[in-house]
Write a structure and sequence with these properties.
By secondary structure, the chain is mainly β. The chain has one helix and 14 strands; from the N terminus they run E-E-E-H-E-E-E-E-E-E-E-E-E-E-E. The strands form three sheets. It has an eight-stranded antiparallel β-sheet, with no helix packed on it. Strand 2 and strand 3 form a beta hairpin.
Length: about 200
């Protein structure tokens, strides 16, 4: 039986100076606590593990730079100096069971994503199809991923590995004034085979 726990404090400060326009200068400071926890046990023939971790990353200078850049005749692009740092909280559960002619494994992951960075568009000229692409923080997104697989030994020369998995998120967007759901689950199943 093993328990590992930790916490990290991260302080990041950056300074971006625009040599052409001082109004586009950018200063940002980020302070984040990043905890983690892992619990595992080996109770032969059963093994399980539970873990939690937080991850984060900082917006790039390009994503923060609000100077407008020409892309082509229909698109301009700029950054968003008000972007917040995305954070992910991941909870994982894994289990593994050994039986006489193979193994059975499965894991379940729940993720809570906050302030994920995505492209956002504003129409500048609808008659000519001219848009300004920028960046925006998304609202909280919840996602689960579940996977189960079995390894079956058939004789001394064949190994079969059937599996099934599903991914589902809870998220929607507004497009042309309509709410569109992006929450449909994605299923996948199959069988891998090895011949020795």
């Amino acid at each position: 039986f093993t328990i590992d726990a930790g916490i990290r404090y991260e302080h990041t400060s950056h300074r971006y100076d625009n040599l052409i326009d001082d109004a586009l200068d950018n200063r940002e400071t980020y302070n984040t606590w990043i905890p983690s926890l892992n619990i595992s046990a080996n109770l032969s023939p059963f093994h399980f593990a539970i873990s939690y971790r937080r991850t984060t990353y900082r917006p790039s200078y390009r994503q923060l730079d609000e100077a407008i850049r020409y892309v082509d005749s229909r698109e301009y692009q700029n950054g968003n100096p008000n972007l917040r740092s995305p954070k992910n909280d991941d909870f994982d559960l894994a289990a593994h069971y050994v039986f006489p002619f193979g193994t059975l494994s499965g894991f379940l992951t729940y993720q809570r994503s906050e302030d994920r960075i995505s492209f956002s568009s504003d129409v500048l000229d609808s008659d000519n199809g001219l848009v300004l692409m920028t960046y925006a923080n998304l609202p909280v997104i919840h996602k689960i991923f579940a996977h189960i697989t079995m390894s079956i030994k058939v004789g001394s020369w064949l190994n079969l590995r059937p599996y099934a998995e599903v991914t589902k998120q809870w998220h929607s967007i507004i497009c042309d004034g309509r709410k569109i759901s992006l929450s449909k689950p994605i299923w996948k199943a199959g069988v891998n085979m090895w011949i020795n």
